[in-house]
């Protein structure tokens, strides 16, 4: 006898969004069939046909897996596009990992490759470019084609790649020091250009450099301000299990359970984000997403807010930045990261240390903006291109390139700028 199984649990937990399609699985001896909420046929019958949902606040991705002629296939139900055959997949919001014995290929939601190579890790570079790691080296790929932009290996995406930005804060050009000793210039469109063309373009359009060694502005801050208020959409709740232990989960405002209560601690990172900080049974911190997938492994000793969108995860030895806006752990480890700066500062930059050297870093993407002079202990204020710096108990002034304009010999340094003062007043009234 046929039986109908409503595969809607996660959808109901997430709540319906406008124009979202509900997928219903009909099970029968001939195989499973998927129909929509009106009974309209979508797919099947196939053996072991199942739907996997990924909710992304305003977007909902659904993938189905099934067996066809004894081969497992995957299809994006939103676009009815088949993913490349011959792989099992792991799904995330932006990409699917086509798993191989040595790693994975990276597949976009349209079924084409973002990285058509077997890699062990990937890391976002820009809107059109992405890094993939093979062996000990990184390589640069064009997201549109999935192919290599340059054949040369890169030792560090942090130290060996300098990014040039336009006036809107977008990456427009890369300068890459390759592991085999070349200097390569690549546009954001994935086109390699020579040094003369790159220099001409940089000068013509006044592109601004932000490099790993560090001069210039940080651009992880995109002008959007996210709320620090406790989440109203995601609500922690607890139960006491049979052993008397309190376990925590997440429910929605309509009381539907989103994350089952199984963690020692859990906290939403905010209504604007799709991630939660959680603590496992070993009292280690990690990051999970709205479908309870582990995004950042449970191996950290603490988690603390840094900016309006970033958080510091710490082990006993190192500190790392997790950006909740893009769901990425910054590919850089610091000894310390200062989380105590005023909000108007820390939303854009903070102070970090590596081996007793102090750096001004972008709070959101972790890039080094500049290296603090050895005589400077801290930055206490900034406006436009100026930093008020502290050395011991005295203060001075420094520009954004790390050049000392006024030696730190004064009891107090105030930037007497009406616009700055009005700006500070506004921030004090609107910080949340």
UniProtKB/TrEMBL annotation:
One protein family per Pfam: WG_beta_rep
UniProt superkingdom: Bacteria
Position of the signal peptide: 1-20
Keywords: Signal
PANTHER family on file: DUF3298 DOMAIN-CONTAINING PROTEIN, GLR2918 PROTEIN
Listed name of the protein: WG repeat-containing protein
Organism: Veillonella tobetsuensis
């Amino acid at each position: 006898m046929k039986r109908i199984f409503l595969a809607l649990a996660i959808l109901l937990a997430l709540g319906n969004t406008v124009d979202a399609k509900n997928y219903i699985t009909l099970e029968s001896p001939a195989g499973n069939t998927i129909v929509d909420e009106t009974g309209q046929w979508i797919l099947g019958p196939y053996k072991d046909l199942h739907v996997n949902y990924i909710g992304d606040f305003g977007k909902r991705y659904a993938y189905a897996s099934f067996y066809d002629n004894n081969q497992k296939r995957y299809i994006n139900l939103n676009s009815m596009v088949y993913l490349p055959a011959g792989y099992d997949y792991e799904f995330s919001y932006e990409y699917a990992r086509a798993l191989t014995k040595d790693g994975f290929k990276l597949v976009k939601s349209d079924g084409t490759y973002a990285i058509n190579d077997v890699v062990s890790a990937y890391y976002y570079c820009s809107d059109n470019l992405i890094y993939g790691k093979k062996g000990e080296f990184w390589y640069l790929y064009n997201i549109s084609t999935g192919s290599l932009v340059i054949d040369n290996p890169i030792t560090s995406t942090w130290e060996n790649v300098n990014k040039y930005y336009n006036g809107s804060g977008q990456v427009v050009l890369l300068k890459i020091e390759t592991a085999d000793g070349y200097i390569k210039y690549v546009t954001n469109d994935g086109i390699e250009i020579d040094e003369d063309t790159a220099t001409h373009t940089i000068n013509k359009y006044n592109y601004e450099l932000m490099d790993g060694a560090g001069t210039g502005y940080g651009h992880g801050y995109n002008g959007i301000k996210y709320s620090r208020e406790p989440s109203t959409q995601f609500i922690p709740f607890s139960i006491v299990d049979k052993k008397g232990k309190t376990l925590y989960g997440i429910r929605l405002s309509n009381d539907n359970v989103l994350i089952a209560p199984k963690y020692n601690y859990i906290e939403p990172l905010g209504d604007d984000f799709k991630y939660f900080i959680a603590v496992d049974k070993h009292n280690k911190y990690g990051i999970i997403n709205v479908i309870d997938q582990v995004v950042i492994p449970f191996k950290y000793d603490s988690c603390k807010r840094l900016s309006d969108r970033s958080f510091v995860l710490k082990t006993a030895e190192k500190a790392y930045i997790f950006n909740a806006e893009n769901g990425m752990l910054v590919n850089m480890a610091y000894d310390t990261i200062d989380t105590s700066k005023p909000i108007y500062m820390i939303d854009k930059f903070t102070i970090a240390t590596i081996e007793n050297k102090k750096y001004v870093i972008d709070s959101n993407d972790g890039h080094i903006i500049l290296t603090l002079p050895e005589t400077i202990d801290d930055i206490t204020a900034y406006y436009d291109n100026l930093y008020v710096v502290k050395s011991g108990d005295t203060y001075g002034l420094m520009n954004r390139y790390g050049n000392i304009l006024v030696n730190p010999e004064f009891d107090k340094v105030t930037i007497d700028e009406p616009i700055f003062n009005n700006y500070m007043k506004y921030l004090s009234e609107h910080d949340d």
